[in-house]
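Student: I would love a firmer grasp of how sequence relates to backbone shape in proteins. I am handing you a single protein, as its sequence and its fold in token form. I am told such tokens are a discrete way to write the fold. I hope you can help me see how the letters and the tokens relate. Take your time, and here it is.
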Amino acid sequence: MNLLQSLYLARADDAGSELLLLIDDCTKPDILRLFGLLRATPTSEYTNFEPANDKAHIDSQESLTELLIRILEVTAGSKGMLDEFLLFSKSLISS
């Protein structure tokens, strides 16, 4: 969240609206659950969230991966930079 907020302040002209949407999405209960957090009200403390079963846990991990890819696409700055990062990360995974 801090990264998104910092990028929003730095890139208010370029991709500010997309970053603002991501910041808003990250405060929603469904997204908080992807990170293992739960909040009863906007002013309450965070509590731990545990998926009910293995399927819910796997679904949560898939959704988290999709969110992180979306964050990468918005914060990359350019398509070329995104492609370079994805190639680099795939080479790390395969080695």
Remarks:
- The helical segments are 2-10, 16-26, 29-34, 54-75, 79-94.
